[in-house]
Amino acid sequence: MPTFLQNLFRSLADPGQMAEVLEHDLQLATAALLIEMKRADGKLATAEDVALRAALRQEFGLDRLALDALIEEAEAEARDAPGYYAFTHRINDGFSQAQKLRVMEYLWRIALADGHLAAHENHLMRKLADLIHIGHGDYHAAKARARAYLDAQSAAH
Length: 157
Prior knowledge:
The protein has eight helices and no strands. By secondary structure, the protein is mainly alpha-helical.
């Protein structure tokens, strides 16, 4: 799998690819953070995986094959990353405040998907909110929207 730097060098050779590379990089950074949230409580709940896939599909409009490939690549990136900065830096540089708020809501959906907010999940949520510059009010509003979304999904099934 090509890394971000390999994609960047390729895009310099073909400037038409730059927008595509940057979009994929944002997708990858978002997916990696969502995967980190899924792993935060040490349990791999099906509900968290469903929430992760739904969030990525909703945000980026990916088909099943593209979604599977993105998740596979993001899992490798997250596993090899020394921390969250590489991902949050890309999100801060590439996303508007509204887009960052959606990412925060998606993170909450995963954290709350199994019906229990573990201490590690709560800690990671606060840390990521700080790293992507989400204020206290927006942090709680994203949590409320995520909870309402999950309640609506539960009522529909």
